[in-house]
Predict the structure.
Amino acid sequence: MTGMDKEIILEGLALSPGIIIGKVWLIDNKKAKAVKRRISRDEVEGEVKRLHKAVNDSKDQLLKIKDKVFSEGKKDHHYIVDAHLMMLDDKMLIEDSISNIRNEKVCAEWAIAMVIDELKEIFENIDDYYLRERGGDIDHVGDRILKNLIGEEHVQLAGIDEKVVVVAHDLSPADTAQINKEKIIGFAIDIGGKTSHTSIVARALEIPAVGGLEEITDMVQTGNHIIVDGLSGKVVINPDRKIFQEYLKKQQRYNYVEKEIHKYVDLPAETLDGTRVHIAGNIEIIEEIPSLISHGGDGIGLYRTEFLYIGRSEPPTEDDHYNVYTDVIKRVSPHPVTIRTLDVGMDKMMPFFDHPEELNPAMGLRSIRFCLKETALFKTQLRAILRTSAHGNVRVMFPMISGVDEIRAARAILDEAKEELKSEGISFDNGIETGIMIEVPSAALIADLLAREVDFFSIGTNDLIQYALAIDRVNDHVAYLYDPLHPAILRMVKSIVDAGHNANIKVGMCGEMAGDPVYSLILLGFGLDELSMNAFAIPRVKKVLRNITLDDAKVISEKVLSFTTAEDIKQYLKETIKSRFSGELWEEFNL
Ligand code: PEP
Ligand code: MG
């Protein structure tokens, strides 16, 4: 047995449910890869500028590292950083790359990659051991420049043509957009928490996934056998016979329960005493709609539109938006579709836009803040949403609103778009419902003031929890603190619902919390009008709602608010559920 055939059991975070036994397809996306792109004469100066910027960004990053090394007293180590800094000042590296851009008419990435390859070849042929080793430094420097040029790592998932479990460091939204469900049957990734986009997409496409595995990419090779248990968060590499048999049984049991739960997809989300809750789905890509419908979702409560902007070199045109939105409407009709305006920033970057580097991107120029600065880009999307509203039940929703000024500013641009369309004779629904996500604690605190300005609220618990509890939602080191049952979160949710209802507007929830059947007991009691979730969760939540009365749910949610810790709440819910539900459903609860 070689080192790479050894059985290894890893504990990670369960990101997307299901058990899969398959073969590894390793993606080494820690290292940036240049893609050759031919450019026109007009693009030459732009590419030269990009190259200079990437080199300067690389220098800034290295200088920061050098400062840190110094401040930590590891002075000896700064020579390595100095050596890399010197390479960045190397005339040949820069000038040769520029002449590649000018003479070969290739993009900056390819131009620099050509020079790096030449330099590496020279070093590899040097007899002197020390000098030969410097070839590795050139690789590192080249990789840094490339990453700064690319902005994010692009991996090719589209080309996979056999059934595999993808093992990767992380997947960007642009990567996940290329997933073919027929070929990719599981994920095991180094980083990523439950609300990272990789896990949201994995859940939406019903692909079992485990994240937070830290170094799995260093432990496997393509072709290794692997078990991904998206229920417990366990991953087994090269399982022995005993574990293999054990998981085969687990997989069968899981598939049986799935079949049972599936019986609820076509039943209404109605309590024992006839209270209806609107159950909708969250989507990011159009391919998710069939799964949403087959799981019994009544429309789309959150359409994340970022995928229209990422993975392309030019911003989408008004018609690009319009064509996709009308397609979505057609597929979901007569149910409503809530289109959320661009929520860019943090982990979602647009390649055609020069995003400023931010130390704290989660609190930076993201989402509505970005749109209110880039108003032309924003208005293009709003015009397309308005045009789509002429063909079906469309609502527009603004993300990351933190105060009344922002919603007024966003509405003013929406009104401008309406005026433009009117004067152009283009039809739209003038009364289009306009709402906001409540996902910033300040918005939660002034929900009564915001409720006067809009037609509906949708609570975005993924960000609300991140900001309220000060937990980076994509940092798996603090993922254990990320708890929707924290009394602060429950109080916030309750007061948002009350503020909305006092102003006679509907309040929904579209964060991941809405899709957990345990939480749906509490959310029903709080009075939420709509729950929007991933497709997988829909029949589970329906099953819970159909087995309780509204009054009982109110008792549970009131009781829950009387506890002091999330742990006490969990204990109470566990006991309540045990006494109330039995059989398969109990096993479904994730307490
Ligand atoms: C949220 O923050 O809860 C949400 C639904 O939005 P996103 O996950 O896209 O930030
Ligand atoms: Mg959010």
